[in-house]
């Protein structure tokens, strides 16, 4: 949600292709669930499960990497950043949105952090002087989260 309007491009389950480390993913959620794993086999099982609830369900049945709580916000950022950088039509919608990003159909934790993450990505994609402070502030929040674990 951006200023109380639904923006489909911000949905982590949105079907769209991108690559990270030469591996194809079909949604930012698909990447995020894969990032939890400790084995290539589990990662591939999740990756091939698709963009939506099936990858979320698969990601909740695996052994988590030891540092997961510390890195999970960064991994969500990494997946979303790649999604927008490699899908210009989605990036354009985000770039031209205005207002506060937040709220959604997730937990309070992820509604908050997805808002921070998308605010940072929007500022990074705009690449203008006004957004430098936003980038600095959101990066600091994410760094603080990682250090607290």
Written description of the protein model:
- With 149 residues, this protein is mainly alpha-helical.
- The chain has seven helices and two strands.
- The chain has helices at residues 28-35, 40-47, 53-59, 68-86, 88-95, 108-126, 132-147, and strands at residues 18-20, 23-25.
- Strands 1-2 form a two-stranded antiparallel sheet.
- A hairpin with a 2-residue loop joins strand 1 and strand 2.
- Helix 1 (28-35) runs parallel beside helix 3 and helix 4 (68-86) packs across helix 6 (108-126).
- The protein is globular.
List the helices and strands and how they pair.
Blueprint: E1 18-20, E2 23-25, H1 28-35, H2 40-47, H3 53-59, H4 68-86, H5 88-95, H6 108-126, H7 132-147
Antiparallel strand pairs: 1-2
Helix pairs in contact: 1-2, 1-3, 1-4, 4-5, 4-6, 4-7, 6-7
The second-level CATH architecture is Orthogonal Bundle
Radius of gyration: 15 Å
Strand order of the largest sheet: 1-2
Helix-strand pattern: EEHHHHHHH
Largest sheet: 2 strands, antiparallel
Poorly predicted residue ranges? none
The H-level CATH homologous superfamily, spelled out, is: YbiA-like
Q: Descriptors for this entry?
A:
single chain, mainly alpha, Tetracycline Repressor, domain 2, two-stranded antiparallel sheet, 4% strand
Q: Short summary of the structure?
A:
The protein has 149 residues and is mainly alpha-helical. The protein has 7 helices and 2 strands.
